[in-house]
Amino acid sequence: MNYDAVLADMVAIAREAGALTLAYFKRFRDLEIGIKGPADFVSDADKESELLIRKFLFDRYPGWSFTGEEFAPVDTDNEHRWLVDPIDGTTNFINGMHYTISIALRRGNRTVCAVLYNPPADEMFTAIPGQGAFMNGERLRVSEQADIGLCNIGTGLPTPGLQLYPGAYERLDAIRAPIGAVRIVGSAANSCAYVAMGRLTGYYEETGFVDTAAGILLVQEAGGVVTDWWGRGPDIYERTGTLLVANKATHAYLLDKLKDVPRKDPK
Ligand code: LIP
């Protein structure tokens, strides 16, 4: 099956969801006057965005299964499934910082189309296996930086359920010297996109696959390395979420450092 037309549809609906969520995003300072709590604010935007995307995709591709972040999955097809995060980076969102919309199409256990949109920056990322990764139509390559002292590494810190992800601060401590910098982009999807385009040389976090499915394909198509924290493949990281995406040099460095942090291997 040729997925070019499907990708074009995904781009169109990501843009629409971008406009919808931006209207909320621009009003983030309303939260200070308490019209709505942050949880309601973001959950209204999240739900509206997911419903908009879901309706569009169901109309165009009736019968394909759907997993989103806000509602129960729809399991109608064993072959094709949408993985949709309607707002990745919800804490960023309520603080007026960059967030992304992530849409991946899975066929069996492969991602066959990926779209990732950062509405505040108007950056649209796309990928199809074997055809490369692009931002606003421009081909992406991961960073060629091999000097660890100049590497720029992304991660995330768990909010709010820190106890769910033990070791996050110890891991920061383990990776820090002698790297150039650590950044928290605040959206797992956007962090992957930044690796694909070379803003970050690498990124690691324990996070959900719905958030990262599209970003992972971007990194792979941009020539990056994708494994779990112990160097293993998709059968492990898609399930456990212990994801490591990077250029070659950063990947080798992080693998070496992350293994020293006490962490129960989530087999
Ligand atoms: C979250 C990201 C956050 C990352 C978490 C998770 P959500 O997604 O925004 O940056 O640290 O692992 O991916 O809850 O905002 O969709």
What does this structure look like?
- This protein is of the alpha+beta class.
- It has 2 domains: 4-139, 2-Layer Sandwich (Fructose-1,6-Bisphosphatase, Chain A, domain 1); 148-258, D-Maltodextrin-Binding Protein, domain 2 (3-Layer(aba) Sandwich).
- It is 37% helix and 23% strand.
- The protein is built from 8 helices and 12 strands.
- The protein has helices spanning 4-25, 38-60, 90-94, 168-175, 188-197, 209-221, 234-240, 248-258, and strands at residues 65-68, 80-88, 100-107, 110-118, 123-127, 133-135, 138-139, 152-155, 181-184, 202-206, 225-228, 242-246.
- Strands 1-2-3-4-5-6-7 form a 7-stranded mixed β-sheet, with helices on both faces. The chain has a 5-stranded mixed β-sheet with strand order 9-8-10-12-11, with helices on both faces.
- The longest helix is centred in the N-terminal third of the chain and has 23 residues, at 38-60.
- The mean pLDDT is 93.
- L-MYO-inositol-1-phosphate (LIP) binds next to strand 2.
